[in-house]
Amino acid sequence: MISFSKLQERLRPSSQYLRIEEGDNEELKIQTSPEPSQTRTTCYRRSFLLSGLLNVILAGACLSLSLRSWSWHDNGVTEPKDTSFASSGFYSPLTDRVDLTPRLTTLNGTFLDEHDPENPLRLLPGEKADSAWKAVSEIQYITVSHSEVIKLGRDPAALVRAPEEWGFGSDRYIAMMDLTHQLHCINYLRRAAFPDYYKRDMYRKPEFYEQHTMHCVYMLYQNAMCAAGTEVITYNWLEGQQFPVPDFSINKMCRSGDALLEYERENMVEDLIERRSKMTRPEDAVVLPVPKKLKAWLEWLETA
């Protein structure tokens, strides 16, 4: 049996690099160029470490999303609430609409999916995997009320209202769930890990997609540091392995991401792409300035 350390020695670095297209349907293009051996080795090591990190993130996300442990009341409010847990987080209108009581969960931290059938979120690129990831990571709008906006610490006058013809009322503002954005970023990096599958014959402004990638990386980093998990990972001896192997299947107290996604599906703005394309800025809308560095970069991008 080959060990993980020997497996690394057998792999060969690639002389290819990728850039990512914009949006949920972003794809990749491969470019090749000769590189010095030392550069290839350095790039390979970084890629190997990044691949391992992504495996851990994706494995945790997969199990969290596969859990179905919530209850619903007719009025959309669930009880009982874990007040000690809720008080540790910033206000969210979702806590009054979804049962987010933490439950003991064991993450599926295996290196390969040992289940049959396999979780589609862990499959290699293909129709099943893409369909599963689209279902959990596609950006959607929900709406929040004026009073909820105030509790979120935002100025209602500076926010975008949901057009009344959308059917949510005259006192609603568009929003999205932070969970959905995090899943969007994980899917973005998943696609980046398979350039041969998600490639495109032509692309525009690769510099934009590079920055989009790093935006996602940094957002996931900040969320991981904010959660600051205190769980401890132990090690075991496995047959055929030279070194101790970590057991990532740890116990955690988890809220139900599935319950949040179910709420999103039941309350999202339908036909979002079409409706968004018809949105116009009201004459009295507050228009915020673009940050200085971003403005200069966007202007450069237009002429690059």
TrEMBL record:
Annotated signal peptide: none
InterPro entries per record: UstYa-like
Superkingdom as given in the UniProt entry: Eukaryota
Pfam families, per database record: UstYa
GO term, biological process aspect, one: mycotoxin biosynthetic process
Entry similarity comment: Belongs to the ustYa family.
Protein name: Tat pathway signal sequence
Organism (species): Rhizodiscina lignyota
